[in-house]
Design goal:
The chain is built from 7 helices and 3 strands, in the order H-H-E-E-H-H-E-H-H-H. By secondary structure, the protein is α+β, with helices and mostly antiparallel strands. The chain has a single domain, classed as K homology (KH) domain (GMP Synthetase, Chain A, domain 3, 2-Layer Sandwich).
């Protein structure tokens, strides 16, 4: 993911950078994080209630793991994962087809100046966590993670 940089050419008010008050090291403001979290809760409620008419979403248990908002709060990237990862691609396509309906539902439940455009992506963090767990379970890595005995410490010091 490439982040666009904005430059203040003197005297004008530029976009908040990570060094300004209210922004973290990634440049997201407290407002972005707060709106993203509220949007995550609203989408989770809508998807859990079964209001979507798409057959792929009707019986699917979908976890909304994270929402990232653009600085102007007009675009939201919603990271989702169906329970157990079953039919993940089918669910992602169904959510993309239902984005307009979901946007309307969000508008009714959140008070925002603009209804954000919703872009759905599958959350890859579970796959990454499994990959890291598998790497840590490898014998050569486990050997390096085990504490050394006291004889090894004496031998290393001398």
């Amino acid at each position: 993911m490439v982040k666009a940089a904005s430059f203040d050419r003197g005297g004008g008010v530029g976009n908040r950078g990570p060094s300004e008050k209210g922004a973290d090291s990634w440049g997201t403001s407290q407002r972005q994080r707060r709106v993203a979290e509220e949007l995550r809760h609203v989408l989770a409620r809508i998807l859990a209630s079964g209001e979507c008419r798409d057959p792929a979403l009707r019986d699917a248990n979908i976890t909304v793991t994270e929402v990232r908002m653009s600085p102007d709060l007009r675009n939201a990237t919603v990271y989702v994962m169906p329970l157990g990862g079953a039919n993940a691609l089918e669910v992602a396509m169904a959510l993309t087809r239902s984005a307009g309906f979901l946007r309307g539902q969000v508008t009714r439940q959140l008070t925002l100046r603009f209804a954000p455009n919703l872009v759905f992506e599958l959350d890859q963090t579970f796959d990454q966590a499994d990959r890291i767990t598998a790497l840590l379970a490898r014998p050569e890595v486990e050997r390096d993670l085990l504490p050394h005995s006291s004889k090894d410490k004496v031998r290393d010091a001398g």
